């Protein structure tokens, strides 16, 4: 399943995106998921919570069924 998440800026940091889209409830939860290697950006494991995401980037979780697509519209 794919789900578009609209952002209002040119880019967004990975941890902020996870909070903005209500995937996680807090920054701490986002930090833990990212540092544990459970978050993929464009099908590659991402360990940096400050990674900038741009429209078209895809975020998913190891073993998850939903792909979150960064969108401007």
From TrEMBL:
CDD domains: S4
Endpoints of the signal sequence: none
InterPro entries: RNA-bd_S4-rel_YaaA, S4_RNA-bd_sf
Keyword line: RNA-binding
Molecular function in Gene Ontology: RNA binding
Domain of life per record: Bacteria
Protein name as it appears in the record: S4 domain-containing protein YaaA
Organism name: Halonatronomonas betaini
């Amino acid at each position: 399943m794919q789900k578009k998440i609209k952002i209002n800026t040119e880019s967004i940091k990975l941890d902020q995106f996870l909070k903005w889209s209500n995937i996680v409830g807090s920054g701490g939860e986002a930090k833990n998921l990212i540092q544990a290697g459970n978050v993929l950006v464009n099908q590659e494991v991402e360990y940096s919570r400050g990674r900038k995401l741009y429209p078209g980037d895809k975020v998913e979780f190891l073993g998850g069924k939903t792909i979150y697509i960064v969108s401007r519209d």
